Amino acid sequence: MNYDMKQSGKRIQQLRIKNGLTQEQVAEVLNIDRSFYSRIEAGKSGCSVDLFVQLSMLFEVSLDYLILGEYSRTLFADTEKLLLKEEIEKLVNHLRKIKEIL
Q1: How many of the other CB atoms lie within 10 Å of CB of 66?
Q2: Sequence-distant (≥ 6) Cβ neighbours of residue 83 within 8 angstroms
Q3: How confident is the model over 18-40, as a mean pLDDT?
Q4: How would residue 39 be classed by pLDDT, with cut points 50, 70 and 90?
Q5: What count of Cα atoms within 13 Å lies in the side-chain half-sphere of residue 80?
Q6: For helices 34-41 and 5-18, what crossing angle results, to 10°?
Q7: At residue 10, does pLDDT exceed 90?
Q8: Residue 96 in contact with residue 89, Cβ under 8 Å?
Q9: pTM, rounded to two decimals
Q10: Cβ pair 15, 61 in contact under 8 A
Q11: For 87-96, what is each residue's pLDDT tens digit?
Q12: Distance CA 2, CA 81 (A)
């Protein structure tokens, strides 16, 4: 398993979008230039360890996930449960709306 800058950038971009943030907002929080942040998402620039740690804390994901696209085994179980719970809640809300229509 190797670090792939482009794939890491895609994951960072997906996390930013999922959290409803703009590149400008993330760059401001990280105290970096927006154009540099844009290059990170595009996979044209890598991150320092410090920047990866800040991104990990901002998006509440592991460094394993940001860098390699994988969760450590113990974290994966917890993260998987959380994601599954979120998806179930969305489905339940959707079903409630359908029930109201019927």
Answers
A1: 20
A2: none
A3: 96
A4: very high
A5: 8
A6: 110
A7: yes
A8: no
A9: 0.69
A10: yes
A11: 899 999 999 9
A12: 26
Of 66, 60, 65, 63, the residue nearest 86 (C-alpha): 60
Average pLDDT for 3-28:
95
Read off the amino acid at residue 16: R
Query: Two tokens at 49?
Result: 């360890």
Give per-residue pLDDT as tens, 42-100. 999 999 999 999 999 999 998 988 999 876 555 556 667 777 788 899 999 999 999 89
The model's confidence at residue 22, banded by pLDDT at 50, 70 and 90, is: very high
Q: Could you identify the residue written with the tokens 């844009």?
A: 38
Token pair of 72, please?
Answer: 């450590």
Per-residue pLDDT, 81: 75
62 token code pair = 């592991």
How many Å from the N-terminal Cα to the C-terminal Cα in the chain? 50
Q: Please state, as a whole number, how many other Cβ atoms lie within 10 Å of the Cβ of residue 55.
A: 24
Helices 23-30 and 34-41, packing angle to 10 deg: 110
